[in-house]
Every structure is written in C-alpha cells, then in structure tokens.
Design brief:
Helices cover 38% and strands 25% of the residues. The chain is of the alpha/beta class. The protein binds adenosine-5'-triphosphate. GO terms for molecular function: ATP binding.
Length: 242
C-alpha cells in the first residue's frame, strides 16, 4: 500500500504544457480513475509518476518520499509499477516462469534464500489465483487470450512487489466477460494495493473507482464520485469540446 501525493506537477514538450500544475492525492489502498478527453495528459501523468518522463516542475511523493527526480528503476524498487497498453510478457515462457522472471527483478538478496523461495512459491499460487490463471500456470504465455495476457502482466507486477500500480486502459480490447473479471481483480487488489487507472470504459470505471479525477489540458478539471462527475457541467463541456 502506498500513499501518493502529486503537487503542482508540470511537464512541457517543446512548448506544449502536457501536464500543467496538476495536484492530487491517492490514499493507501484506494482505486483512482483518471478520465479526460484525448490529449488531456492522462498517460503523461502516469509516465511522470513511474519515471518514464522527468517533470519540468512539481513534486511526487510516495509515502512521504520525494521520487520525482529518481530514475525509473529506482521508483520500481520503491514499489511503483506501471502496466502499459502493450503487454510485456515473455511469450515463449510459461505463466509461472513469467512470474519467476518478474520476481527475480525484486530488489535485495532475500529472494535468493531457499527458505524464502518456498514462501514465495506459495505467494505465486496466491497471485495466480487472484488473477484467475492458476489452471494455466504451465501454459505458454503466447497461448493466452488477450484478457489473460493482461492479467498475467498484472500478476507480474504483483510478483515484483509493486504496491502502487499505474495502468493505462487495462480493459482495451477485452470481451465484456474479461472486463467484468478485471473489475473483480481490481476490487480484490484494493485495500492492499493503490491503483491509478486511466480508463475510458465508464461502466468499468463505475465498478472499480473509489474516486475519479477528470483531466483537461494538463490540469484537474473535476474530482469526485461517478455521480458527481456525470453531473458536472465543466466535464460535459470538455468532452463536447473535443
Ligand atoms: N513524448 C512526448 N513528446 C511530445 N509530446 C508528447 C509526448 N507525450 C505526450 N505528448 C503530448 O502531450 C499531450 C498529452 O498527451 P497524453 O498522451 O498524456 O494524453 P492522454 O490524456 O493520455 O490522451 P489519450 O486519451 O488520447 O491517450 C498530447 O498533446 C500529446 O501529443
């Protein structure tokens, strides 16, 4: 579980202010959904939090620790995990082998010790159960469906001990059933993990979000529950304007 505080965050790309004075908090164990029209700065915000992009100003704190100047791998070690739209699983390896690779990326020497490795294999079972892939643990990742591949990637983040998980359109391309299962997975992660999710599917957002932030032109336009967001006139205007 991680508490995230973003304060007055800025980034410019050749004069374009993609993120322009963004401030928000995410509580430990909370699921925050980021909405907004195309080009609002949602993906860039995730890039800034995970360290893929360096900010031109502002602060990003995780459990009180300033991370905004740290390199991406250092942030990963602090438990910040990013799931991209294109999955990065190893197709020739089995599901469980993919988890082992993810686990071996964890910091520290402890995972090398046998006693702890045993415990870890139990953790792995638990993780596979959580993402509904236990029956497929010895299947090649390349043979998984699109939805299962996305879940494997979430499982890999869990295996590498990410506690603040950032996801960009996790349900894109999923069937209705896969989307529903993904919502259940997210709800079971909430409480123990903090999630920031960029998502356009409103019924999914309705199912998973504890809170919603709508971005427009790099800044926060509105914040609240789904009911508050749907009733917000500024939000309606921003979407119609695009
Ligand atoms: N590396 C980059 N270099 C230059 N411009 C960029 C870069 N990354 C993003 N941008 C620009 O920053 C703005 C915000 O982009 P971003 O992808 O964050 O928006 P978004 O809200 O995620 O939109 P979408 O819903 O379309 O993915 C856009 O105008 C985009 O073209």
């Amino acid at each position: 579980m991680e508490h995230l505080q973003v304060t007055d965050l800025h980034v410019e790309f050749g004069g374009l202010r993609a993120v322009d004075g963004l401030t928000f908090d995410v509580a430990q164990g909370e699921i925050l959904c980021l909405l907004g029209p195309n080009g609002a700065g949602k993906s860039t915000t995730l890039d800034l939090i995970c360290g893929k992009t360096q900010p031109t100003g502002g602060s990003i704190r995780v459990n009180g620790v300033e991370v905004s100047r740290l390199l991406e791998f250092r942030r990963a070690r602090l438990g910040i995990g990013r799931k991209f739209q294109v999955p990065s699983v190893y197709k020739d390896l089995t599901v469980i082998e993919n988890l082992s690779v993810a686990r071996s990326r964890r910091p520290g020497i402890w995972h090398a010790l046998t006693r702890l490795s045993l415990r870890h294999s139990k953790d792995m079972d638990h993780i596979l159960e959580l993402v509904s892939l236990k029956d497929k643990s010895h299947d090649q990742a390349g043979n998984l469906s699109h939805g299962e591949t996305q879940w494997l990637e979430i499982a890999m983040l869990l295996a590498q001990d990410s506690r603040l998980i950032l996801m960009d359109e996790p349900t894109a391309g999923m069937t209705i059933q896969e989307t529903q299962r993904t919502a259940e997975i997210f709800r079971s992660l909430s409480g123990s993990h903090t999630l920031v999710v960029v998502e356009h599917d409103m019924s999914f957002v309705r199912n998973v979000a504890d809170r919603i932030i709508v971005m427009n032109r790099g800044t926060k336009l509105a914040e609240g529950s789904i009911e508050e967001i749907e009733a917000n006139e500024d939000v309606k205007t921003a979407y119609l304007g695009h």
